[in-house]
Amino acid sequence: MIFEGSQNEDQLSLFEERIARGEKIGPGDWMPDEYHRQLIRMISQHAHSEIMGMLPEGAWITRAPNLRRKMVLMAKVQDEGGHG
């Protein structure tokens, strides 16, 4: 949604006040375009690190000494994939 003129300035002012108070900003809340772009960038980087983090752990599944440890490692890898 694009706001023009003083309405945009009012929205920005309200947004900054909420941030200053430590309030959480939800996905349905208004936010400046640049803030939204950076937020998506950070979330994407975090998801990527979760996916990449599971790769080395997954390589150890076949090397686990017994079935129980394979299952534990598989669960950990599956959790990391779910986080991503």
Index terms:
84 residues; mainly alpha; rod-shaped
- Describe the sheet with the most strands: none
- Amino-to-carboxy terminus distance: 28 Å
Q: How many helices? A: 3
Structure summary, number of beta strands:
0
Based on CA inertia axes, which overall geometry fits? rod-shaped
Q: From the alpha carbons, calculate the radius of gyration and give it in angstroms.
A: 21 Å
Q: How would you classify the helix and strand content by structural class?
A: mainly alpha
Helix-residue proportion: over 70%
What is the residue-averaged pLDDT? Answer: 89
- The H/E string reads HHH
Oligomeric nature of the chains: single chain
Beta-strand percent range: under 5%
Structural summary, described in words:
With 84 residues, this protein is mostly helical. The chain has helices spanning 5-20, 33-59, 67-83. The longest helix has 27 residues, at 33-59. The radius of gyration is 21 Å and the shape is rod-shaped.
Write a short abstract of this structure.
The protein is mainly α and about 80 residues long. The protein is built from 3 helices and no strands. Helix 2 (about 35-60) packs antiparallel against helix 3 (about 65-84).
Per-chain topology:
Blueprint: H1 5-20, H2 33-59, H3 67-83
